[in-house]
């Protein structure tokens, strides 16, 4: 009999699989384990690995699951979850799914959203959310570094104030996409719930507004305005570290919104425990919802981001160039966008193709970092200075001894300090093929093993690279 019900559950999963993406199925449904079915109670019990999975299923897929259950188990079947709350001690909690009629589904509503004064709370429905409409989930590319924050953020946008993810605290280094993500949450929420008062504000602007309200003896009006917000999004809260009065005022606003089920989203460049100067009573409130780290995107995600931007802007850039940019930008989304904009400007003004040589030139000017990767131009410049030859002579077809020595040395350093394949190095150093590069590198490496004076010469050139860095 158990096998019969388990087979019915497998049928449910097949129905669900056909109505969600493969990624959604693997993330949310594969971890569900069938436990039992009670015909007397018409209740199906399944096990989920965490409260987070349970809540996400209830908020996003309970309707689909209800239809699948009705088809495979019959109508009026209730779903119950066994949630593992302590795996080490095998402690679990059993919770029944909410009746489908009680679940609030997002409804697109029509409303007015004009922009009066920030302190004008007389008409709560009429505020400017200060959101950037260009920063949405549709152009926020998902990867391993942002999967959790993006997934939770989308769930919050669709069910604001209805989850345990309140407050939602996001932290990560500069340029990793925090501002884009919190904007996307607000934009999506306004699309689904136009009547809700959603407000994005930077910590600096909040502090300026509070200071101005204090000077004008309008602190009560300032507080009353913020008490009417349904979703408050505050960016860069680490800037409040030494602003004692601002922190005290935000504490009271936070408490009121939290108690009334209003959604609070906070972004910072560090986790709550590292917010020096913040009072403990506020830090404990920051930590009572969900803290999610947003890591710098890896190279593959950077390439996906660049491809997406190229498609939007109608640019044609080779994958070699895009990967070079992704590997050089140190995981900064801002740098990626800036480089693409610069490449577009250069190609239009100078009527040239966007190739590796142009990308190297732009990267040197656009990406600021203490560990800036060396480019072919950098290497050629220093090697040519050492051998007292010109770049044109090295790139030429001449077999003059000094030119050949500088050419081989340039190829050796290019292979050592750049991430380019031999074929690309050869193209950039006089249009040679990859076998020439390999031969040059082998020649240098063999000589380094037997010639101490040559070792000192190579080290002398390398020291000029370190001065650049």
Task: Describe the overall structure.
The protein is α/β, with parallel strands linked by helices and 469 residues long. Helix content is 52%, strand content 11%. It is built from 20 helices and 9 strands. The radius of gyration is 29 Å and the shape is globular.
Describe this protein with a few key phrases.
52% helix, five-stranded parallel beta sheet, alpha/beta, 469 residues
Could you outline the blueprint of secondary structure elements for this entry?
Layout: H1 2-17, H2 22-29, E1 33-38, E2 43-48, H3 51-60, H4 62-73, E3 78-86, E4 91-96, H5 147-158, E5 168-171, H6 178-192, E6 198-202, H7 203-215, H8 219-227, E7 231-235, H9 244-259, E8 263-268, H10 280-286, E9 290-293, H11 299-313, H12 319-328, H13 333-349, H14 356-366, H15 376-387, H16 391-395, H17 401-417, H18 422-428, H19 434-450, H20 452-468
Helix pairs in contact: 1-4, 5-6, 7-8, 11-12, 11-13, 12-14, 13-14, 15-17, 17-19, 18-19
Give the spatial strand order of the biggest sheet: 6-7-8-5-9
Mean pLDDT: 80
Q: Main β-sheet, in a few words? A: 5 strands, parallel
Secondary-structure class: alpha/beta
> What is the string of helix and strand elements?
HHEEHHEEHEHEHHEHEHEHHHHHHHHHH
The proportion of residues forming helix, as a percent range, comes to: 40-55%
Ends distance: 71 Å
Number of helices: 20
- Model regions low in confidence, pLDDT < 50 over at least 5 residues: 100-125
Q: Assign an overall shape.
A: globular
Rg from C-alpha positions? Answer: 29 Å
Into which percentage range does the β-strand content fall?
A: 5-15%
The count of β-strands is 9
